[in-house]
């Protein structure tokens, strides 16, 4: 069952260019393919390691088994990177015409390393003479250098490296110089150059793959590409369009640690152990710049702590909003204000904890803050005003998310209240960003602060001579028959109609009523207008339109054009000749 499960994972569909998921799939596929060999060698190695007598008489055989096991484990890794086993697919941006030869050459170098290790074991056990060891070493060095040079020049097939000759040429010359140094008797210099160049190339290649792996992994967490990533985002409480909090700093920390480790290992390979110790001492004990003590190790720990605390803050906010406060008797707006306040307080505490881990003394910060307070007060006066207004809005809640408000000439629904601004979505679905200070200091009309009730007014005019009482009765009937109109509520008045004035062309009435949802007032007004029109038509009540009498002062003179002149003008304009009636 476990083998089937691994086979299913190996056959999963992976998005093109996704290194993290592609590498996992390739590792599983290659592990399944090499499972018989790995399990066999692993069982023999365990037997030899657990039972001392099993390998006591033949230590070379035991070392051979260990070496073969390590060889096939590394082969699984190489094939996972450069030539994945089926059913896994190729996933790197590197061209397959380069990747597959590079994989074969890497396996050849690995086989040479295994052979050289076995030769050293034979020499240690006295099974190989010094002369044969020296000859074997020269042949091995030559074959090794040729294969490394082959790999270096193979990379020139890449699109970005086609015109680059300097680096491959210098590496090739350095490797040949190492061979020459060994031939003339400088064996240690030969080992230093060949091992240094080979291991440095290996470390840089692995670092590039690891960097791309973590970059795709973090991008997948931000986008939620796969099921486990979506589950993790839901556990933290993130929405589809939101990013993981603190993930940018985690990216930076991982990339920084990765390349620092590569640099230290490269220095160690080239025999710069003292430099490594000095770097580690500066990294752990720190150094002073202008009287300020800086400890890089503490800074990295502070970044990691900030990432963890921000992630926990987001998780707690998600839990508060979606689960823990749902069963409470608090209003939705109160829950939202509590969650927002908790988020800002938690972020502030996370920053303070990170600064303390970094070793920053708050007494110095207080002095600096006091010196800059005057300048900040003048320069960021509006920002601080909006910030304080945002806190007041979260505490007093004169405006809540979902309210329909009118601010200046903007009417719409409150989408989001942040610490500095408030987002209002208008009826035309446009988002308007309003500073919080405008909502606190200016006049705001909140149509749904306490409830969703609202009053509508419907003006109507009827023709002179219409029965006034009958018009009022019809208006009452229309209002009472609409389901959205509120009736029988002691806090509100019943629907009523007013005879307002004598207009120029009509008797002016107005129908007033309260409705349950003020958001639907335009639709309710439309429904009532249609009902009034139908009722007036049925009763024969006329809805007049403005009429005007035009009086002409003096005699009205009308000029007529003779028929012949009109016909002549028509012939010139239309291009067709017509006969004159008088000449026919």
Automatic annotation (TrEMBL):
GO molecular function, one term: mechanosensitive monoatomic ion channel activity
Cross-referenced PROSITE patterns: PROKAR_LIPOPROTEIN
Subcellular location: Cell membrane
Principal subcellular localisation of the protein: membrane
Keywords for this protein: Cell membrane, Membrane, Transmembrane, Transmembrane helix
Residues that span the membrane, as ranges: 21-48, 60-82, 139-155, 167-186, 192-215, 252-273, 293-316, 337-360, 366-395
Top-level taxon of origin: Bacteria
Domain Mechanosensitive ion channel MscS C-terminal: 456-543
Stretches for region Disordered: 563-584
InterPro entries cross-referenced by the UniProt entry: LSM_dom_sf, MS_channel_C, MscS-like_channel, MscS_beta-dom_sf, MscS_channel_2nd, MscS_channel_C_sf, MscS_channel_TM-2
All residue ranges annotated as the Mechanosensitive ion channel MscS domain in the record: 382-448
Protein name: Mechanosensitive ion channel family protein
Organism whose genome encodes this protein: Candidatus Accumulibacter meliphilus
